[in-house]
Amino acid sequence: MTKVYVSKGFFPKAYFRDTVDYIARIQQHDGSIPWFEGSCFDPWDHIEAAMGLTIGGRYDEAKQAYYWLKNNQLPNGSWLAAYKDGKVEDGTRAESNFVAYVATGVWHYYLVTGERDFLQSMWPVVESAMEFVLRLQGSHGQVYWAEDTTLGIREDSLITGCSSIYKSLECALNIATKLNIGVSDWALARTKLGNALTTHPDCFDRTWDSKSRFAMDWFYPVLTGVIKGRQGKQHLLSRWDEFVIREMGSRCVNDEPWVTVAESCELVMALLAAGESTRATELFGWLHQFRDDDGSYWTGYALQDKVLWPLEKPTWTAGAVMLAADALSNYTSAAHLFREGAGLHAAKDTVQTN
Questions:
Q1: 148 pairs with which residues across the strands?
Q2: Considering only CA atoms, which of 275, 272, 250 is closest in space to residue 327?
Q3: Kind of pairing, strands 87-90 and 82-84?
Q4: Distance (Å, rounded) from C-alpha 55 to C-alpha 332?
Q5: Which of 96, 101, 77, 72 is nearest to 148 (CA)?
Q6: Which of 91, 104, 126, 157 has the fewest CB neighbours in a 10 Å radius?
Q7: pLDDT computed for residue 116 by the predictor
Q8: pLDDT at site 5
Q9: What does the pLDDT read at residue 344?
Q10: For 302, what's the count of Cα atoms within 13 Å in the CB-facing half-sphere?
Q11: Which whole-number Å values give the CA distances from 15 to 128, 263, 278, 321, 352, in the listed order?
Q12: Cβ–Cβ under 8 Å, residues 78 and 147
């Protein structure tokens, strides 16, 4: 079994170079990053892969990914559910957490590079995206999961999606702070969203089966700073044995024998946010048995059948690997974003020094 132990001050740059190169190789000429060769992509996973490029120092390619978002943003500030080969693949809806994630990606790029001109150029995109998202905010602070292009706003909410939006609002507010732009209504919206996530469980999963069987519903509130400190640690440990398979990783859902690399990497960062660095280092070390020779990572592993499944190597999984490795090692100036980013702060000029 291949194990790689990444820890503070130790980032095996040569080992992860192939992982970053894999993302860059899949990226299209227009800047879009499909899930894998020949596939479609969605805005959220496109951004996750772009953050992997940034960590790996592929700044030009990362900027092209963000410029794709700039060039394809709809007049209402959103992007549709999926794209392929320069065309809309799924135009049925715009998902709120997909749209909001641009703020996280743009702020991440700035933290690594310190390129204020890039931040300035992307501000209109971020502003328009966040205004779209907040138009979908409900009375208790929850953000509805999507606007259907035929049926309008779909009035139900997801814990994972709203937690991701909570983080994106933090990043959007930090971008505004850096550019000296006032958006006080965004701060209030974020406070209301955090309150909904912590005190109004009735706002979520109202029209579909509960998503609590998904690992992301378990750890995303910790990953994104909704649940912090000792409470975050207790929250993760309370369901640890339910999701984590030793020497393998985290299940995607608690009732299926299937571990997935991307969710495991995000759990690594949630553990770091909760102060569980030993568990985080160990968990990340298990995941490299699912790495292919080209530096990519398979989606996951079916424990019962003992096979890789599905036989896909997503760019967003590679991006998640890079984010977890960075958070563990403190390699870039953005390493703290999920590890310690549990709230707003006064933005400071930062630049990549590695």
A1: 93, 152
A2: 272
A3: antiparallel
A4: 7
A5: 96
A6: 91
A7: 98
A8: 85
A9: 52
A10: 8
A11: 38, 21, 21, 12, 19
A12: yes
Q: What is the pLDDT of residue 353?
A: 37
* For the chain, domain boundaries: 13-339
Q: Kindly list the averaged pLDDT for each block of 10 residues, start to end, along the chain of length 354.
A: 82 96 98 98 98 98 98 98 98 98 98 98 98 98 98 98 98 98 96 98 98 98 96 98 98 97 98 97 97 98 97 98 98 95 45 40
Would you list the DSSP string of 14-51?
A: HHHHHHHHHHHHH--TTS---SSTT--B-HHHHHHHHH
* Strand partners for 304: none
Helix (H) or strand (E) run with residue 146 in it: strand 146-148
CB atoms within 10 A of CB 272: 25
For the segment(s) 13-339, the CATH number from 3.40.462.10, 3.10.450.50, 3.30.200.20, 1.50.10.20 is 1.50.10.20
Which structure tokens are listed for 183?
């958006």
pLDDT at residue number 341: 55
C-alpha neighbours within 13 Å on the C-beta side of residue 239: 19
Q: What's the order of all strands across the beta sheet hosting 300-302? A: 258-260, 300-302, 307-308
- The Cα 134–Cα 125 span in angstroms is 14
Structure tokens at 334: 């953005």
Contacts of 210 (CB under 8 A, 6+ apart): none
Structure tokens at 16: 């992860």
Closest CA to 176 of 229, 123, 140, 131: 123
Q: For position 293, what pLDDT does the model report? A: 97
pLDDT at 347: 41
Kindly state the helix (H) or strand (E) to which residue 64 belongs, with its residue range: helix 59-72
Q: Is 252 helix (H, G, I), strand (E, B) or coil?
A: coil
Distances (CA, A) of 3 to 145, 283, 290, 291: 38, 10, 10, 10
How far is the C-alpha of 167 from the C-alpha of 194, rounded, in Å? 10
